[in-house]
Amino acid sequence: MRIECTFLIAITTTLLTSCNFDVLPTGQYATGDKYILYKYQSKILWGGELLGNNIELFKKSPAWKMAIAVYEQDTLEIEKQHKLNSEAIYFQEQKYGMTLLCWAVINDRYFSAKTLLKLGSDPNRPMYNDGTPVNYACEKETTANYLRLLLLYNVDLYRKSRGIGNYYVTLMEIAARTSLENVMVLENAGLYINYDTNHVETPLSVALRNWHIEIAEYLIKKGADYRKPVYFNETDTLYAIDEIKDGGYKTNSEKDSAAQRVLKFLREHGADSSIK
């Protein structure tokens, strides 16, 4: 069985190499005391670029040994490497400007992230695109555990990050694109729902324009300003109620039910006085 596995590994490595895929070595004492058989990771996307999920972004850097431990979620090794080089947790790789904490959050290494935070990693340090570990925690659709974890470590709730164009986005706007749980966690942490970023987008408009009526309903219940336009240009101005009526929620019975509740609330509070 061992011979067959070794043969398959050798064949796979050969095939990947012949296809111009750069792969991590198989069987390297990278951390000094632990034999690691790496998973194969492709570097190829649009011309051979290293992707953000590839731990080799930290290769040949002072943080490389700790990076391997973060990848493997070897928390004892992370602590050991921190004692040997306490600056590794602050190192930012050159391509995207990620710290190891940011990499851990993006790539679902929860226990590594927890250990890095305990050692002093900064949850507010931005990448070159202005994204922070907290931003990426807010983007997770299936869990709010990373967000809850980061909020234990002096997160700047009101930091605005660069969005597309010449405007900035809040954490609540990011969360409103992804999950109700993330929105609830931020609101419970004290983030003001109507925090103004001086552009048309709000958490409510983001939720509505991404068909998250359940998030919109929650935001309205918590005091979101539904009288502010969710979209406008030279010819049109749309409000929350317009977005709901035209949002196509009837394709999902649960969403349609929530949409009807929100419509009823808005009409009762004078947000649609033109409709009889």
Any overview of this molecule?
The strands form 3 sheets. This protein has a two-stranded antiparallel sheet with strand order 1-2. The chain has a two-stranded antiparallel sheet with strand order 3-4. Strands 5-6 form a two-stranded antiparallel ribbon. The model is unreliable at about 1-50 (pLDDT under 50). The chain has a domain at about 155-275: Alpha Horseshoe (Serine Threonine Protein Phosphatase 5, Tetratricopeptide repeat). The chain contains 13 helices and 6 strands. A hairpin with a 7-residue loop joins strand 1 and strand 2. It is mostly helical and about 280 residues long. It starts with a helix and ends in an 8-residue tail after the last helix.
Rg on CA atoms, Å = 23 Å
* End-to-end Cα distance: 75 Å
- Name of the level-1 CATH class of one domain: Mainly Alpha
What's the helical proportion of residues? 40-55%
Secondary-structure map:
Elements: H1 2-18, E1 26-28, E2 36-37, H2 64-72, H3 75-84, H4 100-106, H5 110-119, H6 133-138, H7 145-150, E3 161-162, E4 168-169, H8 171-176, H9 180-188, H10 203-209, H11 213-221, E5 231-232, E6 237-238, H12 240-245, H13 253-268
Antiparallel strand pairs: 1-2, 3-4, 5-6
